[in-house]
Amino acid sequence: MSDHTNSSQTASAESTVETPLVWDHLSDVRTRLHQADGLLFGTDFDGTLSPIEENPDSPEPTETNLRSLRALRDHPQVSPAVISGRGLADLRERVGIEGVDYVGNHGLELGIDGQRETHPDAEAAEPVIEDICQTLGDRLAGIDGTVVENKGVTATIHYRMVDREEVKTVQNHVKEVVSELGKDEVEIHDGKESLELRPAADWDKGTAISQLLAHTEVWLPLYIGDDTTDEAAFEEIRPDGITVHVGDNHKTAADYRVRTPAEAEVFIRWVVTDGLALVESTDDTR
C-alpha cells in the first residue's frame, strides 16, 4: 500500500499569498475568453454543481446549474464536462443531461462522446476494492455515521457524520484493512471529510482533463471544483487555462476562488450569460 498526500499540499504550500476571488479578476477572465477559439468547460459535481451534504446519497445539482450546463452544451464552441469522484453511472443519473461528457471515479471511468472507457488497472482492482469494502463495513459497523461507498473501481469512506473523536479510529481502520488486503494494488488518497481508495494507476482528474482537451483541439480549458482531488486538474491546465477553487483553501493550485457552492453557481451562470458572448464575438471577428 502507498499512502498519498494530495498534490494540493505541494502545489502552493510554500506560498502565503491568498488566492484571489474571481470576482476581483473578471476583467482577466473576460480577456482570456475573448481570445479563445472555444471553451472546454470542466466542473466537479459535489460542492460545485451541488451543495455539500452530510449524506453522500443526497446531493443533487441545483436547477440553475442544470440550466447553465444545458446552455453550455447547446453552444457550438463549448464542450462541457462533469468530472467527479462518483461512479460514472451514478454521475450520469444525477446530472441527466445528454450531450455532456462525464468522467467518473476521479478520471478512471471516461464517458466521452457517448463512449465508455475504463482504465485497465482499475478494472483489475475491482475485486480487491470489493473485499476491502466488505471488511471495512464489518469493522466500522460500530462507529455511527461512517459510510463505506463502493463505486466499483474506487471506493470512498465518508466520515463527515462521524463524531470528531472517532475520526482517527476510522482512518486507522482504513489504513489497516488496505494494508492487509490491498496487495499493493490500492492507494489511499485524502478527500473532503473522507478517504478515497483508488487503484495504483497513474491516473487522476488532471489526466482526465488532458484526455478531454485532446478532443477540443486548441480550445481554452476552464475548470472549477472544491475538493483536494480537483488540484490535479488545476495543475494540468495551468497556466494556459482558467482555474477556480470553491472554498477557502488558500493552498490551492487554482488561480482564483469563489467562497461557496452558491457563489460557484453564480460564476457558472456568469460564464453562460457574459462569457459565451465573448467567445461568440471572437468567432465573429475571424
* Count of helical regions: 9
Let me know the CATH homologous superfamily of the largest domain. Answer: HAD superfamily/HAD-like
In CATH terms, what is the fold-level topology of the largest domain? Rossmann fold
User: What is the CA-atom radius of gyration, in angstroms?
Assistant: 19 Å
Catalytic activity: alpha,alpha-trehalose 6-phosphate + H2O = alpha,alpha-trehalose + phosphate
Keywords: Hydrolase, Magnesium, Metal-binding
Pathway: Glycan biosynthesis; trehalose biosynthesis
Cofactor: Mg(2+)
Spell out the key features of this protein:
286 residues, alpha/beta, Rossmann fold, Alpha-Beta Plaits, five-stranded mixed beta sheet, globular, EC 3.1.3.12, trehalose-phosphatase activity
Can you characterise this structure?
By secondary structure, the chain is an alpha/beta fold. The protein folds into two domains: 2-119 and 203-284, Rossmann fold (3-Layer(aba) Sandwich); 120-199, Alpha-Beta Plaits. It contains nine helices and 13 strands. The strands form two sheets. The chain has an eight-stranded mixed beta sheet with strand order 6-5-4-3-2-11-12-13, sandwiched between helices. A five-stranded mixed beta sheet has the order 1-9-10-8-7. Helix 2 (26-35) runs parallel beside helix 9 and helix 5 (120-139) crosses helix 6 (167-181). The protein is globular, with a radius of gyration of 19 Å. Pfam families: Trehalose_PPase. It catalyses: alpha,alpha-trehalose 6-phosphate + H2O = alpha,alpha-trehalose + phosphate. InterPro entries: HAD-like_sf, HAD-SF_hydro_IIB, HAD_sf, OTSB-like, Trehalose_PPase.
